[in-house]
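B., you asked whether I could sanity-check this one before it goes into the benchmark set. Here's the sequence:
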Amino acid sequence: MAQVSRSAKAYDVCIIGSGAAGGAAAKVLTDGGLNVVMLEAGPRLNPEKDFKMFAWPYQLPHRGVGVGGKLRGELNSEFMAPNGAWEIEGEPYTSAPGSRFRWFRSRIVGGRTNHWGRIALRFAPVDFKSRSTDGMGDDWPITYEEIAPYYDKVESYIGVFGSKENIPSAPDGVFMPPPKPRCTETLVQKACAKAKVLCIPSRMAILTKPLNGRPACHYCAQCGRGCVTASNFSSSQVMIPPAQATGRLTLITNAMAREIVVGKNGKAEAVDYIDKTSREEKRVNAKAFVLAASACESARLLLNSRSASFPDGLANSSGVVGRYLTDTVGSSGTGYFPQLEKVPPHNHDGVGGMHVYVPWWKFDRKNDFLRGYHIEVYGGRSMPGVGEFDGVCDEFEGYGASLKQKCRSMYGTFIGFEGRGEMIPNEHCYCDIDPDTVDQWGIPVLRFHWQWSDNEIKMAKDMQETFRSIIEAGGGTFLSSATADGPRPYGIADGGVIIHEIGTARTGSNPKTSVLNKYCQAHDVKNLFVTDGAAFVSNADKNPTLTILALSWRASEYLLSEAKKGNL
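And here's what the prediction gave me:
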């Protein structure tokens, strides 16, 4: 190992990662008076410079289509929030033979909260007690009643719109008023009512009223490009700046964590990291550590932190670090609605995402599969060059005025439906360290093992049937190439594609079968906490970010309390 440059200062807490979990921890701990250092593998973020909220295609190189038009129709990085990618040069990952897994990573302050869709759904009481309900998987060591106050705190602080519905599968929260449904969403609502499917206002971390100095959304519908006004939630704009304003947060960027170092007393005492700008190896010391690098990145760091005390990886006496990896079950379909051809072109004002969604509505019946799913709805017109118009142009052939007329008449007539369901952990899905591959920093990389079970495939089949029933009830034509055959039966997405991977360092009451206790504190190392998606026991059908924020907030309050008692 190269010579390590050591910091002379020892902080109260070191946080690794600046996304949802890291941002929440930074806010709680600095507000509580602790001196915190945060390591982020990417650079700083400047919204005014880095976000392309109002950019037009003609303002970008090659008018935003790339050399030879090769980027046409893709969500390319020229338009989206920066430094998020499926593949990072010099930082590979591998998949075991027969596995199909993709890993989206973000290397910038705020992490993937700069890129997420802002869908903010609470887990339901039953989601924390799955095994007690149907005998599969495991129960969480906490209940909904224990986490609910932290959902309240998070929603009150970041701002979430929604409506009170009293639906067992979708608990109500602290909501701002939801935006009104747009033209296509009104059509979907009527179709769902006819098909006897619930359809309610969506729940998203986007402001519809001013909050804590942040203005309400101005409805430009470009959330995916980053929000200069911070009207939608990102850790980089909502959590990190207030923590820095306390004067108790030191942010170290371009810091690629290599290893958490354990002292002779069995506690974590330092993090060794690579300064990516100088390629120098450095060390930062702290009294306690919060690992918040994302589920798989956190598992990688734990597995790479081997020592005489932990030969199989830090806090891994149970052997389950990297195990119980899941992602959301995803399948999609599209409906063509001819009546939308007659709708005059108009501005589809609103947030950058859905105004309505379908929560899990079959919770009171027996299905062909266990657990449930929700449906996200997308349609209308988006800014030229980055949305549906590209897809329309790809569908039709022709020349001149007739082709233009056809594309214009079809633009805005398609509505997309995306199912998002719960995957039950299985023994075939996990990540470990690839024995033969390292990244450009010399750090061993992750290898993914992945296999959907019959339960998830049956769920995807049901999603397709539901899409068809809604679309046809609304007078549309169902368009789907999903079949029962092939590597993606019923259109089920490859592992990792939905970007909801969780569960690699799960919480639990038994140290032999879990990594963390109910406060996300490592059973083996009491001054180490893992507060990102790795801590999840199950993923329900809900997008995990709101629960990550709530778990990290709760764990950080506990850490703060223990630190003040001198128990760490």
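One thing to flag: DSSP finds twelve helices and 18 strands in the chain. Otherwise nothing jumped out at me.
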